[in-house]
């Protein structure tokens, strides 16, 4: 599964909150080919790109017990090759054209997509049509075996080797009957994946991956009269399959409550999940259930926050939400409790919160808050051609029409207080539920009352499931289907669209805040941030996490507003406002409708200049942060990150400690520490504003006048961090996670900063090694060996630090070989790459730039790059000039200069009992066992 895409479209749609009769809609043209393929076209000429989304109405809900995971497994197979497109060529061809592609499977569907420069649209249609109509013959035993192993490793990474990973499996098994399609997870059962045959999946494919069970949606810069003949050319001759009837809703009921528990090998804190069966998506009651979840736990005035978090202090937060799918729905309460907290107490608090809800009811203001942000979310959701293509295709397949959006909006507008109370009474109050208690190993006393052992059987890592690829030696001939069109001929691409860099304006207000802006008039939105240099690097090491702590506290009310009042003000504007801290700075981030720009700026001024310093919220924030750290302590990915940073930066460098702090440093932080850090770091002298949206320069600068007048500047001394030295020689460091199903590998060394002249050349040089799906390490470890779900290499840096990393999570029993492969390929890469690989790199990176300025987020990122690293406004053009001028010899010189195989830290997090000794054979000496 490359990605899993799951939409709750109703929440992405909305009605306007002004007084106009304007309707929020996406214009489109729809028609059907003779073979039943539904086509939806939406023109958007704002950028010279096109999104192609193809929605197959087949997910795991079309499978049967004993043959699960087929939809997802076939998603993988469809990226391998087809009759007229060679092995691993899908990614290569799209990337080389400057595009991006991916796909995903969920319970109800499978979707594939490309976003390409408009000159590559015909190629994208050729690729998609070939894997729709001419794929089955390429499903050979060897190709199938490889993807079986990849998916098994994906399951380990996503489920088996992470805290609470088995929870969704447990809920499905107990909420739905054995034959119900939601009884199993999308990824399927490991045994089914292992036992699946080529014939099984071919039969599954021929039944469901057919034109008459599919919607093709195009959104972007094209001419309708040009694209229709192309769609007919490539898809028209694909024969229709047997009629595939839409599944009817299959809601379930529970006769009794089921309470189960599991001792989790990776959990450090207990987690309680309670689930009630509800209704399918787009039914009237599904909308009311969505509102119910938000009202129960969506803000600081909600019953769950007040009881579970604030009064009883059992957990940092409580999640309550409805998830309606095509066939049925489920209403979930999920609470990850504080360390050593009894889940019996948590369950009692849940019912206390329900009782409080029953007593207090719902006000019209509660409804108003929930609906206020829908317009903003709608516009954000259609800011890219890709999201528009997704939405049109999904509405067509699951609601019957791409134009269902207007009915969706009407359904949301129609929800009443009575509707919400009705669904609470009907589906939740006093109704049976499924409850799961996940507790750390050895802490069974924390489970909810009357829970029974779930009996989860975990994979034995010494006998890890694996399809033996070496046993398949015979090369299978791929037969080609006779077609009217010569599909072996790849369509020619037209002229590359011209790269147009947006105009950037700059300004400065009286107190020193520098402003960088881009006027973007496609949507009535504005996205802006105020960034200040400092952040984590300004902290004393013994108080690590104080910047992150302060960022959280600033959102806990102002001098004039309680935490609840501040949150409500933001919600009623339909805006998002947050404060964040990073290694080198802090940022206030805002996304809102343009008409609310000044009102959000008034709130930002209060947040920045008038902190509340609320003692009660201080203790709640501290508890939340400490428990988050403790929760991470058994997460292999987190352990790898922490260990790698300690080694790279050294004990004396603040960056050797996570920016979120440690349990010890967070416990030591006082309110005075926050105030002191605030007083010495929060100054407009080190602040920059980045603003993108439908707003003029004059309006921005005028809006800033109050903040400028009231925020006094002072000098802030930004420390210079010492650049760490390379290690004397490469060595392996091992962190033991007993029973780990995978080993998390991070290999690397200190490297250049982001401000170095070599930084952008380094990212170009790295591209073929591991900077993309077609990188060497991914092609070997995933596509050839099937050891991992993905392997990457990259350079990461800021103004004061930088490092090179190679990373993957691999099957435990493949740890030694994977480390050896990384070592060998990194060493070989310094010897140079073939000219064709350099040409692929150049083409992929340069042509992709036309996709780089489409959305508010992309433009905002451009401004932060420019201001953070003092880049010229046309830095993209300059980067293109470098890429074009790069030679094979120049590439090799960069690799030899910036990648140092003899001076690397090899960090492996896994099961020491089975993997530690084997790593002695890699040639880097005896591994060092790290005690954390």
TrEMBL record:
Biological processes annotated in GO: proteolysis
Residues in Peptidase M16 N-terminal domain copies: 39-155, 527-636
Listed SUPFAM superfamilies: LuxS/MPP-like metallohydrolase
Domain of life per record: Bacteria
An annotated Gene Ontology molecular function: metallopeptidase activity
Domain Peptidase M16 C-terminal: 196-374, 668-845
Parts of the chain that traverse the membrane: none
Keyword terms, alphabetized: Hydrolase, Metalloprotease, Protease, Zinc
UniProt cross-references to InterPro entries, sorted A to Z: Metalloenz_LuxS/M16, Pept_M16_N, Peptidase_M16, Peptidase_M16_C
PANTHER family membership: NARDILYSIN, NON-CATALYTIC MEMBER OF PEPTIDASE SUBFAMILY M16B-RELATED
UniProt family annotation: Belongs to the peptidase M16 family.
Protein name: Insulinase family protein
